[in-house]
Write a structure and sequence with these properties.
The structure holds three protein chains of three kinds.
Chain A lengths: L8 H6 L13 E2 L1 E2 L4 H17 L4 E5 L3 E5 L2 E3 L3 E5 L7 E2 L5 E5 L5 H15 L3 E6 L4 E8 L2 E9 L4 E3 L5 E3 L7
Parallel strand pairs in A: 4-7, 8-9
Antiparallel strand pairs in A: 3-6, 4-5, 6-8, 9-10, 10-11, 12-13
Chain B lengths: L3 E2 L9 H5 L7 E5 L2 E5 L4 H17 L4 E5 L3 E5 L2 E3 L3 E5 L7 E2 L5 E5 L5 H15 L3 E6 L4 E8 L2 E9 L4 E3 L5 E3 L10
Parallel strand pairs in B: 5-8, 9-10
Antiparallel strand pairs in B: 2-3, 4-7, 5-6, 7-9, 10-11, 11-12, 13-14
Chain C lengths: L17 E2 L4 E5 L2 E5 L4 H14 L7 E5 L4 E4 L2 E3 L3 E5 L14 E5 L5 H14 L4 E6 L4 E8 L2 E9 L4 E3 L5 E3 L7
Parallel strand pairs in C: 8-9
Antiparallel strand pairs in C: 2-3, 4-7, 5-6, 7-8, 9-10, 10-11, 12-13
The chains are: A alpha+beta, B alpha+beta, C alpha+beta.
Chain lengths: ~180, ~180, ~180
């Protein structure tokens, strides 16, 4: 294991927006601070809402666990929905039906660009990003191999997703 | 741009993963696939280890060997520890370390390792069938001895300062905790 | 992996930036403990716990699941699978002190660490309640602090239900944790 200095926030800011950041996931790691209260609290609420509406053949799981998209690509999404039967004991070796990421300042750019591109390439039908501070939810769905934004919900607006199953979310209720 | 290699994904750590750990003065061990990194010990700690090593070596029969850390003891694929001192049959060691349970493992406590040594390691050594486990607490100092009886550790001695402990396992040797610490002005 | 200071005890600041690689990085009494990504059943049961606890959690308390830093001392930063604490006790980044409840869901790898080692550390820090859930056997064991030491207050199996009073009234049925 090469022993080099930790990446810093400044390094992240200097990364070019040219797609080569894909290498950061192919066998390399990002160093990020542990998520903060709002991040985890919001995920808890989304988990509860998804679980309540989740049909029996599907499973909603909190991270971290491995979603193995390729021999050198292993991601740990914040929340995942997938077919119960698709999970192995240790990972999910196929694309999930839904990936949910809650943003942090350090992973924002990744969550909004690089990660969705990985998930889209693997055939993940839906991808949601939640901003735990602004309390917004943005949802993309896969169409012809690329993500198309299907919702951008803020505050007290309600949104009813159809994929991966019908569920209604209101961003303002994701935090007390 | 600097990048770092991931720890292995989706599985407990194994002995091979220890190979990649840095040489930075910390002790790297794996217990049940969990990586445990403890800071380098203090001089006082090493004094105690050295004195105990000398006492054990002097009494050690030919067919057995005493080593001090760092030497890898591989209790299983997912458990590799580096006890402060160990005793095992000479012919059981490979070039790399000891591939199995020693006859005796000894830990000298540090403030940061007390809980690990007294709780996790004792439990793991017991599960591995290590016949004797000694813990030296530098305070006073004291020596506590556990021996395996029907698969569980039983405390057979707890001696402090000038008290003597006449061990019979793994071989006859007398330990006086106070004599493990050289007097310093 | 992080760069660790050579030959020095490990402290909180060494955990400030941890790899986002699915492993759990904790500091206990100055030693770094790195736990592999948990098995899927661990996360299923953790999810089940969140679903059972979330609706019962009163507004003045906050329940979070891992990863989230609980800083018990300069040399001890833990990431329990689930924690409950007073909402006002959190900073933006961490919980600087013991939670009201820490929960660990066992995995084969962490069993030994969760059952005694971590319990001992949480007990020492004054964590009022500590629960351990076995996701394979579907059991829950709960301890409450009494005069500074943990006393087992429940060991629930299968379809049995248990109604906790701490940290808030909630009924848990282990068998339902994997629904």
């Amino acid at each position: 294991m090469p022993w080099s200095r930790p990446l810093t926030r400044a390094d992240l800011d200097e990364l070019p927006d040219d797609g080569h950041r894909y290498e950061l996931i192919d066998g390399s790691v990002l160093i990020t601070p542990v998520p903060h209260v709002a991040h985890q609290a919001v995920l808890g609420r989304v988990l509860a809402a998804l679980s309540a509406a989740c049909p029996s053949e599907l499973e909603v799981l909190p991270g971290p666990f491995n979603v193995t998209l390729g021999p050198a690509t292993s991601l740990q999404p914040d929340l995942v929905v997938a077919r119960h039967d698709d999970f192995t004991e240790h990972d999910l070796p196929v694309a999930p039906l839904l990936v949910v990421e809650a943003l942090t300042p350090h992973t924002r750019r990744l969550d909004l660009t690089l990660k969705p591109s990985c998930y889209a390439a693997a055939g993940t039908a839906s991808y949601w990003v939640i901003d735990p501070d602004e309390l917004t939810l943005t949802a993309w769905e896969l169409m012809d191999g690329a993500y198309v934004e299907v919702a951008h919900v803020t505050g007290n607006d309600e949104w009813t997703a159809s994929l991966p199953f019908p569920v209604t979310l209101t961003p303002a209720t994701l935090r007390t | 741009m600097d990048t770092m290699t991931l720890l292995p994904q989706g599985r407990p750590l194994t002995r091979d993963d220890l190979d990649a750990m840095p040489d930075d003065g910390h002790r790297y061990e794996i217990i049940d696939g969990v990586l445990v990194v403890t800071p380098a010990p203090s001089t006082g700690h090493q004094d105690l280890v050295r004195q105990l090593f000398l006492v054990l070596s002097a009494a050690c029969p030919d067919e057995l060997e005493v080593y001090f850390a760092p030497l890898e003891v591989m209790l299983s694929e997912d458990t590799v520890i580096e006890p402060d001192l160990l005793v095992a049959r000479s012919d059981e060691f490979t070039g790399r370390g000891l591939p199995g349970a020693p006859l005796l493992a000894v830990e000298v406590l540090s403030p940061g390792t007390r809980r690990i040594d007294l709780v996790v390691k004792r439990s793991r050594l017991e599960a591995a069938g290590v016949p004797s486990y000694w813990v030296v607490d530098p305070e006073e100092p004291t020596l506590t001895v556990w021996e395996l009886v029907e698969g569980h550790y039983v405390e057979v001695a707890h001696v402090a300062c000038q008290e003597e402990y006449a061990a019979t396992s793994p071989f006859p040797v007398t330990i006086v905790p106070a004599r493990l610490r050289r007097h310093r002005p | 992996m992080m760069v660790l200071p050579r030959g020095l005890p490990l402290g909180r600041s060494d955990l400030d930036m941890t790899p986002h690689d699915g492993h759990r990085y904790e500091l206990i009494d100055g030693s770094l403990i790195v736990t592999p990504t948990p098995p899927v059943v661990h996360q299923m049961v953790l999810g089940g716990l969140v679903v059972q606890l979330d609706p019962a959690c009163p507004p003045e308390l906050t329940m979070l699941f891992a990863p989230f830093n609980v800083t018990l001392a300069d040399d001890t930063v833990l990431q329990p699978d689930l924690l409950v604490a007073r909402s006002e006790d959190f900073t933006h980044l961490e919980l600087p002190g013991p939670p009201l409840l820490a929960v660990e869901v066992l995995s084969p790898t962490t069993r030994r660490f969760d059952l005694e080692f971590k319990r001992s550390r949480y007990e020492e820090a004054g964590t009022a309640s500590y629960w351990v859930v076995d996701p394979d056997e579907l059991t829950l064991t709960a301890w409450d602090l009494a005069d500074g030491a943990y006393v087992e207050v429940a060991h629930v199996t299968g379809d049995d239900e248990w109604t906790a009073s701490l940290p808030f009234p909630v009924t848990i049925a282990p068998a339902a944790l994997r629904d």
